[in-house]
């Protein structure tokens, strides 16, 4: 089995898929800096609108937290239709517009919701992929432990590390960080977030 990791970034997911399932991963990443530091090699240059793979050459595609960086969803959907074999799934893991409730970050940084709401919605993505011949087979929220505690989350948080935080003002970031640190003094237990997983074939 061969899977496409589209927008592979640091190679974390590519490496995980190989370790978990012993499958082949074709990693595609547009950023030269990310390709250079990737823990998975080789990584080829490309993006969702220009995937440098042959027709029908992968059994599935994995797209994690990058769909909001794709300028032309329709073109990307057509490219994925080209490279993924018929019947193969495309799995899109993301925070989608209007679906922030299960993500802890937005509880303390509500100003960042306006940034999230500029992201594609589930309906936006489904419309583009339906036009390319895909059918939605599932949408579910998948929980994950993001940090061992709010205190750990507050300590590790970086303004530049999250796109929604990058696009709020410094004052809004400072106010949100103060809210987070205050909550961390009284709340215990792990931080559990849920991102959506949209599956199309």
Provide tags for this entry.
seven-stranded mixed beta sheet; Rossmann fold; 9 helices; 35% helix; 201 residues; alpha/beta
Topology:
Blueprint: E1 2-6, H1 12-21, E2 24-28, H2 32-37, E3 43-44, E4 60-64, H3 73-83, E5 90-94, H4 105-108, H5 113-116, H6 122-131, E6 136-147, H7 150-156, H8 163-166, H9 170-184, E7 191-200
Parallel strand pairs: 1-2, 1-4, 2-3, 4-5
Antiparallel strand pairs: 5-7, 6-7
In short:
By secondary structure, the protein is α/β, with parallel strands linked by helices. It has helices at residues 12-21, 32-37, 73-83, 105-108, 113-116, 122-131, 150-156, 163-166, 170-184, and strands spanning 2-6, 24-28, 43-44, 60-64, 90-94, 136-147, 191-200. The protein has a seven-stranded mixed β-sheet.
